[in-house]
Amino acid sequence: MFYFSIFILFFVAVLRGDEVDRDYKTYISIYEYLVNGDSYTIEPTFILFTYLSHALTSSPVLIFIIYAALALYYKAKYIRYFSPYICLSLLLYYSNFYFVHELTQIRIGVASAIGFFALKYLVEERKSKFITYVLIGMLFHFSLVILLISLLFDRQKISSNFILSSIVITGASYGLIFLNISPLNLLEYIPISVIQEKLNIYKYQTANGMVEAVNVLSALQLIRIGAIILILCNAKKFENNTSMIVLCKLYTLSPICLALLSSLPAFAIRISELFSVADIVVLPILASYCKQKNIVRFLLVLLSVLVLLMNLYHNEIVNGYHI
In the UniProt record, does the keyword Membrane occur (predicted)? Predict the structure, then answer.
């Protein structure tokens, strides 16, 4: 059932029409820029797949096939390795990340899939292999570099210092919003052209009202904060579960980044969404530790349905599907 579902999701992503998601036409435009000899700053894999697709099919179709295949392959491997309830994880993935990543932001979709699958090597203390996979993932989206922060984690326990730091940073992030202070101003002093270009794009989008302000008190944000509080309050239960410890620490960064970087909505959402990929597995693992497993699993199914309905009918992240 799991692999059959992955197979169906692959075909849905590949065969969608150009009006289904928000970014499809943008990728077509980038494809046309590149094949016409114009320059465009984008990750090298997209350039490679553009020329490959143009050479073999004289169209951009192969780009979407490759991205969907890679994203779903590594997301499936990520779920299979970490999750105690693979179909529950698949439902959590489908209700949110499938629409955001595989039907819209296809570059970060592949990058996040590779990066989170690579965490298995960090758990197994094979750091060089983890770093290699992250570097490969960066060829699909440069932002994956932030996943290297997991190298700094204590993978044996969730210490009281980590718990205290998480609480203080989260509180400080909301305090900075109240005081209208943006820590993103520090990025202006990083002399890396890619960072500066992306920062200028995000600033332009924000200044011209091209993106909506971040809702740092959204239902999903509050649910994640609630789940993190539950995890931190029961931190000692996970001391023998290296996978849970690593994933939880990454998961903790998701609401922090959304609040801390909220002055640039597009940037905040992108980074927060990357870390939140952890909840595909963290929530089912958390359910496996609860005494009333059936009730908690039912609540996660209900949560998935509500998030799915919110994405489709409130956020409208995709339009009506057509081939």
Answer: yes
What letter would DSSP give residue 186?
Answer: G
DSSP 8-state symbol, 264:
S
Cα–Cα distance between 211 and 269 in angstroms, integer?
11
Residue 126: domain span: 9-145+290-323
CA Rg, the chain, in Å?
20
Total of domains in the chain: 2
Q: Is residue 236 part of a domain?
A: yes
Distance, in Å, from the CA atom of 241 to the CA atom of 59, rounded to the nearest integer, reads 47
Say if residue 188 is in the same domain as residue 136: no
pTM of the model: 0.90
Residue 15 neighbours by CB under 8 Å, 6+ apart: 323
Whether 285 maps to a domain, the answer reads no
Tokens of 291: 């005494």
The C-alpha angle with vertex 131 and arms to 268 and 288, in degrees rounded to 5, equals: 70
Same domain flag for 83 and 110: yes
What does pLDDT average to in each consecutive run of 10 residues of the chain (323 residues)? 96 91 92 89 93 94 96 97 96 94 94 97 95 96 93 91 93 85 64 65 64 80 92 90 94 92 82 94 93 91 94 87 84
